[in-house]
Amino acid sequence: MSTAMVEVRSVHKSFGSLEVLRGVDLDVRAGEVTVVLGPSGSGKSTLLRTINHLEKVDSGWITVDGTLVGYRRSGDKLYELREREVLKQRTQIGFVFQNFNLFPHLTVLDNVVEAPVAALKRPRKAAVAAAEKLLARVGLSDKADAYPKQLSGGQQQRVAIARALALEPKLLLFDEPTSALDPELVGEVLDVIKDLAASGTTMIVVTHEIGFAREVADTVVFMDEGAIVEQGPPAEVLDAPRHERTRAFLSKVL
Amino acid sequence: MSLTLPERPPTAPAGDVPEAPRIVPARRTGQRITAVVVLVLLGLAINSVVRNDAFQWGVVADYFATTAVLRGLWLTVWLTAVVMALGFALGTLLAVLRLSTNPVLRAVSWGYVWLFRSTPILVQLLFWFNIGALYPHILGVRTVDLMGPVTVAVVGLTLHEAAYAAEVVRGGILSVPRGQLEAAQSLGLSRLRRLRRIVLPQAMRSIVPPAGNMLIGTLKGTSIVSIIAVNDLLYSTQLIYHRTYQVVPLLLVATLWYVVVTSLLSVVQYYVERHYARGSADAR
What we know:
Chain A has 254 residues and is α/β, with parallel strands linked by helices. Chain A has helices spanning 44-51, 83-90, 108-118, 124-137, 153-165, 183-198, 210-216, 234-239, 244-253; strands spanning 4-15, 18-29, 33-37, 59-64, 67-68, 71-74, 77-80, 93-96, 171-175, 202-206, 219-224, 227-232. Chain B is an all-alpha fold and 284 residues long.
C-alpha cells in the first residue's frame, strides 16, 4: 500500500580486491523503519553509505523517492552526476554517523543552522528558529550555545540527529548511532530515534541493538559477507530465523 | 565467610585518631648550587655588557628613535605584513591545488613548492633583481621601471614564502579528520563552503604555530633585502654607520628593534592560537 522510499538493486562494491557488497537488493517503504543487523565487515555500513553516495557503487543502482542517487540514466547507461547535483540530493537524505562528526569549532546551534543556511539558502533567522525547535525536540534547548566537546557523547549524538533533521530530509540513515557511546548513554539516543520512528520518518538504522530492532523496526535485515541473508518483520527474523547464519549471529549477540 | 582485619600499627594506640605522618620534601642541594652558579655567570655577563664602553650605549640611545631608523623599521614591518598575507594567500591556493583530484593541478603545485624550496632566497632575490635581462619589457613597460627594488623584494619574498606556506596549510588541512568532510558532504555543503567554513577553521589550529614561526622568520628574513638596497631596518642602520663608522651601536639599534617586534608578534600569536582553540577540550 505504501510506496517505496528506497530501492536498492543488485548493488556491488569493492575496495581493491575486497568485495564488500555482492549484489544487494533492498526495498524500504515510506514511513517505515528498517534495521540492518550483521557482524562487523558484513557490508552494512558500506550499504548505508552508498544510499547517500558517500560511496560510489561499482554496479547496480539506488533510488530514493523515485530519483536515482548519484547518477542520471540515459538509455542503458548511468552517467555520474556533477558534485553540485549530488550535494542537492544529499540534502534530502539525513545521515547520522557513529562518531557524531559534529563541527567542533561551531556551537551546537551553529552546527544545526549551518546546512539549512548554506545548502538550502534559508534566511538565518528562520533557520535559527527551526533549529531551536529541533534542539527542544531532542531535549537540548539549554545547550544551544555550548561547543560539542562540552557535551556528553549521548548529547552530541542527539545534536547530530537534530542537525540531520534540520534539512527536513525524506529519509534518515543511521550508521551505528550508539556504538561509540558509554552504555548508560545509549538509551537517551535510542529514545530520540524511537520518537522519530513514531512520527513516521522513514529510517534505515544500522545497529547492534537487538532490543531496539525488536521494538521499533518494521523490517529487520540481516547481512553477512556483503549480502542480505534474510529480511522480514522482527518477529520472524529475530525470533524464528530461517537461516543458520542468522541463528548463529543472534545466539552470539542475544 | 570471616574476614580478619589487619592489626593497627603500634604507633597508633587503639581508640585514638591516628595522626597522619608529616611529609618532608627531599632536599635539592645540587639544584640550589647550580642555580647560584648560573645566576653569578649571568650577572658577570650582563656586567661586562653594561660596563664595556665599546658597546657605546649612548650612541644606541641617540639613534634608537631617529627618523631614518623608524622609516627603516616601518618598511620592515609592512614588507613582512605584505609578504605574509600574499604568501599565505598563494600558499593556501597551492595547498588546495595539491589536494585536488586533478593530477595536472597537483603536479603544478608540487613543482612550484619543489622549485622555490630548492633554491636559496638570496639567489632568488638576485634573480628577480636581474629579471630585466631576461624580459626587457613586461606588458609594454620597461621591466627596470616596473621592478624597482621594493617591488623585487615583495615579489621575491612572497613567491618564496608561498612555497613554505603551502606546506604549512596542506599539513593543517590534512590534520582535519575525514569524518568532518563526510559530515559536511552529507549535509550538502558546497566545496567552497566546506573549505571555508569547516576545514580551514579547524586546520588553523595546526597552521597557526608554524605560521607564527614563519612570521617571525620572515620579519628577520626581510633583512636580506638590504643587499638589493631596499631601505629596511638593517639597511637604514647600515647607511648611518657607513657614514659614522659606529658599526656596533647601530647594529644594536637594529637588533633591539627586531627583538621588540618579534616579542610583540609572539604575544599576538598567543591570542590567535587561543581564538582558534575555541570548542576544543583544552580551550580557555
